Request: fold
Amino acid sequence: IGAALLRCHRIIGEERYAEALSGLLDDTDRKYSIFPGLHSGLAGLADFNIDVAAFAADRRDAAIGAAKKALSGMLHFKLRRDAGVAFPGESRLRISCDFATGSAGIGYLLQRYVSGGPPAFMLDQLLPGGAPTYAPLAHADTLAARTSPAKVHRD
Reply:
């Protein structure tokens, strides 16, 4: 909803969209949630805030801080396995590789966080004035340090 609202405000420019976004921005600035996933969890909050950082220069620093906070909380859900790291899916009952609730969506978010790039399933290149610049928010070595077991347990 927030991603669509952000783009509606860019296209239409009405104040009511800015007011609604203000409330959403406050609500997405969090570290803890029941789910880690992209569709309805912390990865989705971080993804939205990465968009905000690109679209709203006046809220860039706050949005980056909120994205990092959500990412930090999301990492509490990671499960170490012999083959690597995985994340639980819907209801956290089993490991999931799907895009909406599992490891694939979280992997997409981590890639976007480190490398920048547009959001999935959005046609921002068609927006008036074109797509904003989606800059990387962290370097890969910074993310590796943030995901170490000692760091995750200290948060």
